[in-house]
Amino acid sequence: MTRRREHVPTRPTWRCQACGIAWPCSPAKLRLLAEYRHDRIALTVYLATLQAEATDQLAGLDQALTPAGLTDRFVSWARPRG
Q1: Are the beta carbons of 7 and 27 closer than 8 angstroms?
Q2: Per-residue confidence at 81, pLDDT binned at 50, 70, 90?
Q3: What contacts 73, CB < 8 A, 6 or more positions away?
Q4: What is the pTM of this model?
Q5: Closest to 26 measured CA to CA, from 14, 16, 35, 36
Q6: Which of 13, 50, 65, 74 is the most buried (most CB within 10 A)?
Q7: Better-predicted residue by pLDDT, 64 or 48
């Protein structure tokens, strides 16, 4: 049986454990949207909490990151549309 790796963040780099790209990757976004499909506000709060953690951890690793860039990466894609 093959063990499948989950699309979760690896701290402190905030890269996906499964595919290695910046987290949340597309598979992680799809999983989160499905998991929080009935409560998009809770998803946004959860992602904002992770963004705050990532901001602290990434500050010393990548000087090119901006608060706006991290907001787009972590929160903007999950906001309810309407």
Answers
A1: yes
A2: confident
A3: 22, 24, 51
A4: 0.87
A5: 16
A6: 74
A7: 48
Query: What is the structure's pLDDT at 5?
Result: 83
Task: Yes or no: say if 18 and 24 are a contact pair by the CB < 8 Å rule.
Answer: no
Compute CA distances 58 → 4, 31, 71, whole Å. Answer: 27, 24, 13
What are the residues whose beta carbons fall under 8 Å from the beta carbon of 10, sequence distance 6 or more? Answer: 16, 17, 23
- Of 27, 23, 36, 2, the C-alpha closest to 70 is 23
**Contact assessment for residue 8 and residue 23, using Cβ atoms and an 8 Å cutoff:** yes
Alpha helix positions (H), 36-76: 40-58, 67-74
Distance, in Å, from the CA atom of 54 to the CA atom of 63, rounded to the nearest integer, reads 13
